[in-house]
Write a structure and sequence with these properties.
The structure holds two protein chains of two kinds. Chain A is built from four helices and 18 strands. Chain A is α+β, with helices and mostly antiparallel strands. Chain A has two domains: 108 residues, DNA Polymerase III, Chain A, domain 2 (Roll), CATH 3.10.150.10; 97 residues, Box (Proliferating Cell Nuclear Antigen). Chain A is elongated. The chains are: A alpha+beta, B alpha+beta. At the A-B interface, loops of A face loops of B.
Chain lengths: 245, 430
């Protein structure tokens, strides 16, 4: 059973961060809130999301699963403006989700969750950790995007640097320690990531977010941030590219 | 007087003497005249064309031609949006369907294919691609003929004797000489009622017509003919599509439609390689136990159809990752033809996979015979028993034994394999 009311911007935040990786999602719901774990179809990136019941205006549920088409949710969001309340109710008999925005009601068939796996979240120790305002990174990504199909993330005790190097051009975004919110790094680390994935993840993160970045040498990067005013948590994991020639 | 002085004088009079490399005569054919195999090809492609043509020539040396069209039509692309359209007619009567049904050509030697293709005389008349609906009797008959399931007898009257160059193209199957039509007539065609229904349904989109008829078992060569003659689509959008474009349009549409399903299936459980040889083309189709990604790599030996003057092997490739590609594949229509063939197998098995197709075109492949060569041979390759492997390394060893080109050359060209080797997956860390 699942019945809730939430603000339109809260739902939008969730849809934005999830739909950058997948089109259909399996939301796992219990009495404490909603969570989701998914890898993208190419298994290069992963999202681990939890939305606490406090993020909802009203929330009552016991253990259930909802398979949702994120494009349809986006359609519903287009009907609402910021601040509107969206009501969601699971119709277990008909296997549907009933969504109401004001006087509009949409009943949507749920997507089968049978084929959707429950990915395990890798447990990796990443030696360097720093946090930064998302706007800084988004600016850097904009500059670096067209340069190459990969991007390197570098951290050392003095700061953080994004470098994208193509055949003819190089773009770097250098953030010394005083431009970072925090920096915890003893030895220099460097990893390389696919540009399209990294830029899509960074762009999906809402403005005003303080992003925590965890990196190592040739290891996945973990991006941690909060949504829904601190009542939701998102973890992205992105697998590295290894230079072997 | 020294040699230098006269050189200067000549330079003043005529400009500098051009330096040419006389060790390599630019046109070997002049020296060889079809007898010495100087170009390195197994047989002389000019002579193969010449003999095929000389056998046809006396049969069509007239202003009138009667014969059974397979049925076949050709829509040209020069002058678009005003193009040359018309039926393909051989000087033969009876069931000539095989002449325009590439699905049945795998296994035929290149001479045979040329022989019957060059018998097809291309009648033509000029029509605007969008105003073909009311372009007159010849257009209506051409369309009726194109939609027929059986061979249709044609009586044609040309304004000149059929002539002109024999067309050779990587995309389209070859055909013989051509001539402008004064008029022509046909016997009654027979229709496939499913195709006919799509033709009369002027609200159905062309994509829908192509995909649904394909699922009903209509041959790709039939779909492509109907598509090119403007038989599908919403009424006001209907138009003629040059044959060359229509082949790729149909292959691309069908491949994409299958991909929508196959992408969601679970991956195959092992590495596979399907081996196949035909027309001195050597094929290895590698399937990877991964999500969808695809690449076609072609290696053209010196002196093959598309590397006539080269001194080294040219390797070219196009690829896509999971999300597909937006721009037209560098290597052309064969990319889409092979992608369709791979997805037919995945659909049948209800599995997904990554696919890298390796093709070596050896010197026996003396001339291009059309995209069908790629589609039908990849289809045929996938009917073979695959060799199965536990890892990429084992699969590459097999590839190395099968192909002449060393594995490192394939690897340095293949974007899909490079991505596989360099890009880690989340699963690697669980």
């Amino acid at each position: 059973m699942f019945q809730s009311k939430l603000r339109s911007e809260t739902l939008k935040g969730v849809v934005d961060v999830v739909s950058t990786l997948i089109d259909e999602a399996k939301f796992v719901i219990d009495a404490n809130g909603v969570s989701l774990k998914a890898v993208d179809p190419a298994h290069v990136a992963m999202i681990d999301l939890h939305l606490d019941k406090a993020a909802f205006e009203q929330f009552s549920a016991n253990d259930t699963e909802l398979g949702l088409d994120l494009d349809k949710l986006r359609d519903v969001l287009r009907l609402s403006k910021s601040g509107d309340l969206i009501e969601m109710r699971q119709d277990e008999e008909r296997n549907r989700l009933v969504i109401s925005v004001g006087n509009i009601t949409r009943r949507m068939n749920l997507v089968s969750t049978e084929g959707m796996s429950d990915p395990k979240v890798p447990n990796i120790t990443l030696p360097a950790k720093l946090s930064v305002n998302i706007e800084e990174l988004q600016r850097g990504i904009k500059a670096a995007e067209s340069i190459s199909d990969h991007i390197s993330l570098n951290a050392n005790p003095d700061g953080f640097e994004l470098i994208s190097e193509g055949d003819t051009d190089l773009v770097s975004l250098k953030l010394p320690k005083d431009l970072l919110v925090s920096l915890d790094c003893k030895d220099p680390v460097r990893s390389l990531y696919p540009m399209d994935y990294f830029s899509n993840l960074i762009r999906a993160i809402p403005a005003g977010t303080v992003l925590s970045i965890n990196i190592g040498n040739d290891l996945p990067v973990r991006l941690d941030f909060e949504i829904a005013g601190g009542k939701g948590k998102v973890k992205y994991l992105l697998a590295p590219r290894i230079e072997n020639d | 007087m020294s040699y230098q002085v006269s050189d200067v004088a000549i330079k003043e009079l005529f400009g500098p003497i051009e330096r040419t490399d006389n060790s390599m005569v630019s046109n070997l054919c002049v020296l060889c005249k079809g007898s010495k195999n100087l170009c390195g090809k197994d047989r002389c492609s000019l002579m193969v064309k010449y003999y095929a043509r000389s056998r046809t020539k006396p049969l069509i040396d007239s202003l009138d031609l009667a014969g059974s069209s397979p049925p076949g039509v050709f829509v040209g692309r020069y002058g678009y949006p005003k193009v040359d359209v018309g039926p393909l007619v051989p000087p033969d009567f009876g069931d000539t369907a095989f002449m325009d049904t590439p699905e049945g050509w795998v296994g035929k030697p290149i001479e045979d294919i040329c022989d019957f293709r060059f018998r097809l005389v291309r009648g033509k008349f000029r029509v605007g691609v969008k105003d073909f609906q009311n372009a007159g009797k010849m257009m209506d008959l051409t369309r009726d003929l194109a939609l027929s399931v059986n061979s249709v007898d044609v009586e044609a009257n040309f304004n000149k004797k059929p002539s002109g160059k024999i067309v050779l193209d990587d995309e389209i199957q070859p055909f013989g000489p051509s001539a402008r039509l004064n008029n022509f007539d046909i016997t009654n065609p027979k229709y496939d009622h499913k195709v006919e229904k799509a033709f009369y349904d002027t609200d159905m989109k062309a994509v829908e017509a192509v995909t649904s008829l394909y699922k009903d078992g209509v041959l790709i060569s039939k779909l492509q003919k109907a598509f090119s003659i403007g038989a599908f689509g919403v009424e006001r959008n209907r138009r003629l599509v040059p044959t060359r474009w229509s082949i790729t349009a149909v292959d691309d549409t069908l491949g994409k439609d299958l991909l929508r399903s196959t992408k969601t299936f679970p991956p195959i459980g092992e590495w596979r390689i399907y081996d196949w040889d035909q027309l001195d083309n050597r094929w290895c189709v590698m399937l990877m136990p991964t999500s969808w990604r695809y690449e076609l790599i072609e290696a053209w030996y010196p002196n093959t159809a598309w590397n006539p003057m080269g001194k080294q092997i040219e390797v070219i490739s196009s690829h896509e990752l999971f999300d597909g590609r937006k721009d037209y594949a560098e290597i052309g229509g064969c990319y889409y033809a092979a992608r369709l063939a791979v997805n037919e197998l995945l659909m049948k098995e209800r599995r997904t996979a990554g696919a890298v197709i390796f093709r070596e075109a050896h010197p026996g492949y003396i001339m291009p015979v059309g995209v069908w060569n790629v589609r039908e041979n990849v289809r045929r390759a996938l009917l073979e028993q695959p060799s199965k492997f536990n890892s990429l390394n084992e699969a590459l060893v097999h590839l190395g034994n099968r192909m002449d080109i060393p594995v490192r050359r394939w690897l340095s060209t293949s974007e899909v394999l490079k991505d596989f080797l360099r890009q880690r997956r989340i699963d690697d860390y669980v």
